[in-house]
Amino acid sequence: MIARLNDAEITAALPDVPGWTRNGDGIERQYRFADFVTAFAFMSRVALLAEKADHHPEWSNVYNKVDVRLTTHDAGGLSARDFALAKAIDG
Amino acid sequence: MIARLNDAEITAALPDVPGWTRNGDGIERQYRFADFVTAFAFMSRVALLAEKADHHPEWSNVYNKVDVRLTTHDAGGLSARDFALAKAIDG
């Protein structure tokens, strides 16, 4: 079982992932790129990071835009895994 | 300007893309795979097909599921491009 972060822990963790905002049980960020090729290159990089972390995003893509949502179903909310993956994505 | 298909043309074209259903101005299909790696491998193949066709899907992924929607914004609805890409994806 992965520990679910409480509100105070989430509030404390958010400044470490600038650009991400909390939305209910998840954190979300939208990325915009020059075109589809650049957007999908980003997605390929994130896919490798996600598989390595064994933690996968809920995400969508329309041409040059990628919307990423991170949440931890096994924790029933946000966990440290979400913030770690968000940092890795932006790292 | 890309020609928008009318309802009769869409109805005639749908049997050529089994598994796809019309939803308003688009056609949609959900794919399920064994895991994330297989799902993203599929997405990578679709990304190449889309870029080659210069026609890009609206799509989302959650772990082993990929939802694909095809529509032609420049036509204000469905065009032959959507059915051609659907066939390429399933080919």
UniProtKB/TrEMBL annotation, chains A, B:
MF terms from GO for this chain are: 4-alpha-hydroxytetrahydrobiopterin dehydratase activity
Q: Which reaction does it catalyse?
A: (4aS,6R)-4a-hydroxy-L-erythro-5,6,7,8-tetrahydrobiopterin = (6R)-L-erythro-6,7-dihydrobiopterin + H2O
User: What EC class does the entry list?
Assistant: lyase
The record's InterPro entries line, in alphabetical order, gives: PCD_sf, Pterin_deHydtase
Q: Which GO terms describe its biological process?
A: tetrahydrobiopterin biosynthetic process
Q: Which family does it belong to?
A: Belongs to the pterin-4-alpha-carbinolamine dehydratase family.
Q: What is this protein called?
A: Putative pterin-4-alpha-carbinolamine dehydratase
Source organism of this protein record: Sandarakinorhabdus fusca
